[in-house]
Amino acid sequence: MSAAQRLAGKVSIITGGAAGIGKAVCERFGQEGASVVVADYNLAGAEAVAAAIEAAGGRAMALQADVTDKTQVDAMVAKTVQAFGRLDVIHNNAGIIQVKALLDLTEEDWDRVQAVNLKGTLFGIQAAARQMIAQGTGGRIVCTASAAARRPNPYFAHYSASKGAVVNLVQASAVALAPYNITVNSVCPGIVATAMWEHIDKVISSEEGLPVGETIRRRLEGVPLGRVQAPEDVAGLVAFLASDDAAYITGQAYNVTGGMVMT
Ligand SMILES: NC(=O)c1ccc[n+]([C@@H]2O[C@H](COP(=O)([O-])OP(=O)(O)OC[C@H]3O[C@@H](n4cnc5c(N)ncnc54)[C@H](O)[C@@H]3O)[C@@H](O)[C@H]2O)c1
User: Fold this and answer.
1) How far apart (Å, rounded) are the C-alpha atoms in residues 15 and 4?
2) CATH code, residues 11-190+230-255
C-alpha cells in the first residue's frame, strides 16, 4: 500500500537526517510527496539517504550542516530555498547523548550536549521561521525532544536537561510564531532502536556489570506495548504534525514511547 501524499508540494528540511530517527523521517516525508533536504554533519550518510529517496521516485538533496554553527544553519535554509524555491517544514532532530554520572560531568560535557540539542534547535527554529515569515504562507516546525524530558535519567542529567529545555523552547516559539501561522511542536521518543540507544545500553550495562542488551531488556519491562520502538514509529508522528491534519496543534510535546510515559 503506498503512503498517503499528505506532504505533496511541501519543501522540508530534516537535521540529523543521515541516521536513526532523522533518516526514517526523511524516508517517510519522501514517500508522502515532500521535497526532502537531508541535513547532517555526516555528508556521506546524508547523500546515501537522499539517493535512496530519489531512487524510490522522490525529490531529495543532501546538505552538510553542523547545527551548532549558526552560519551553517542559515546557509542550510538558504540552499534549500535556492534548490526548491521555498521552505514549509523543518524537523530539528539532530541530537547527541553522553552517558556519564552526574558528579562526573564537566563543563565541556555540559556545553557540548547543550550546543547540539538545545542551541542547534534554537538556530533551526530561527532560520526556518525567518524564511517562513518572509514567504507569508505559514509553516511547520517539529523538534525532537525525548521521554528523558519527562522522566530524567541519572546517567544523563545534562541530556535530560537539554531535552526538557527543548520542550520549553518549543512552547515559547509556538506562541511567538502563531501570528504567522507557523506551528511548533515537539516529539518525545522513548527507547528507539538506533545507534544512540545501542551506545546507552553498552555503557550502562558495562557500568552495572550486565551483559550487553540487558539494560534495554529491563527498560522494556516498563513499556506497555512491550517492544523497542522503531525509528518509523517516530516518523509517523512527525509526518502527522507536518501535515494539514495537524493545522490547529501547536506548542505540544507528544510522547511516542509505547506507553512508557503517559504524562
Ligand atoms: N534513540 C532514542 O531512543 C531516542 C530517544 C529519545 C530522543 N532521541 C532523540 O532523537 C534524535 C535522533 O536520535 P537518533 O537516536 O536517531 O540518533 P543517531 O545517533 O542514530 O542519529 C543522530 C544523527 O544526528 C547527526 N548529528 C549529530 N550531531 C549533529 C550536529 N551537530 N549537526 C548535524 N547533525 C548532527 C548524526 O550525524 C546522526 O546522523 C536526537 O535528538 C535524540 O536525542 C532519541
Assistant:
1) 23
2) 3.40.50.720
CA-closest residue to ligand 1 atom 43: 95
Query: Where do the structural domains in the chain lie, given as residue ranges?
Result: 11-190+230-255, 191-228
What is the C-alpha separation between 56 and 256, in angstroms, rounded? 27
pTM of this structure = 0.98
Dihedral, CA of residue 211, residue 216, residue 220 and residue 222, to nearest 10 = 100
Mutate to test the pocket of ligand 1, among 66, 92, 96 (most ligand atoms within 8 A of CB): 96
Q: Which residues line the pocket of ligand 1, CB cutoff 6 A? A: 15-16, 18-22, 40-42, 45, 65-68, 93-96, 116, 120, 144, 146-147, 189, 191-192, 194-197
Per-residue pLDDT tens over the stretch 24-55: 999 999 999 999 999 999 999 999 999 999 99
d(CA 89, CA 86): 10
Closest approach atom of ligand 1 to CA 163: 43
Helix (H) or strand (E) holding 256: strand 253-256
Active site residue 159: yes
pLDDT digits (tens, 9 = 90+) for 109-160: 999 999 999 999 999 999 999 999 999 999 999 999 999 999 888 999 999 9
Of 47, 194, 229, 237, best ligand 1 pocket probe by most atoms within 8 Å of the beta carbon = 194
- 71-113 per-position pLDDT tens digit: 999 999 999 999 999 999 999 999 999 999 999 999 999 999 9
